[in-house]
Amino acid sequence: MTALYAGSFDPITYGHLDILERATHLFNKVYVTIAVNNRKKTIFTPEERKEMILECISGKDWAGKVEVDMFTGLLVKHAEKLNVKTLVRGVRQISDFEYEFRMALMNRKLSPNLDTVFLMPREELTFVSASLVKEVAYWGGDLTHFVPENVAKALEIHKERL
């Protein structure tokens, strides 16, 4: 069985990676799909995000089950193109669930055969979000608990983009 884990991953965090690892225990293959939305301001280009993700998973025993790609448009269309029937979404707290629940229902309406599986990260990662990571990076805070070293370095190098 194959799943699709989509997001902006701008930047990828330990929370994202935890969800991804959990998904690889449930599915034979997981597409990590970088959403490219020109209406949304991002720090990193899609190619930079893909490179960071690949570096983050390199050497993991589950990395062989992961394929990183990109898409623009409706997620359900991309899932259909990949012949994927299950979306993976991370839920950290109740506010995430409310948003993700509405999104799952919309996706189901648009593509009735597409299901969504909600996964929770480890407890110590439930407060970590890409937007908070960017804020900490902007002010020069320690990122070691939130993102892998390669991501922290990229944030430091591109601090002017924050």
Describe this structure in words.
The protein is an alpha/beta fold and 162 residues long. It has a single domain (2-161), classed as HUPs (Rossmann fold). The protein is built from 6 helices and 5 strands; from the N terminus they run βαβαβαβαβαα. The protein has helices at residues 14-26, 46-57, 75-82, 94-110, 130-138, 149-157, and strands spanning 2-7, 29-35, 66-71, 86-90, 115-119. Strands 3-2-1-4-5 form a 5-stranded parallel beta sheet, with helices on both faces. β1, α1 and β2 (29-35) form a beta-alpha-beta unit. It is globular, with a radius of gyration of 15 Å. The mean pLDDT is 96.
Write the layout of secondary structure elements.
Elements: E1 2-7, H1 14-26, E2 29-35, H2 46-57, E3 66-71, H3 75-82, E4 86-90, H4 94-110, E5 115-119, H5 130-138, H6 149-157
Parallel strand pairs: 1-2, 1-4, 2-3, 4-5
Give me some keywords for this one.
162 residues, alpha/beta, five-stranded parallel β-sheet
CATH topology: the name is Rossmann fold
Strand content bin:
15-25%
Mean pLDDT: 96
Per DSSP, the total helix count is: 6
Short description:
By secondary structure, this protein is an alpha/beta fold. Helices cover about 40% and strands about 20% of the residues.
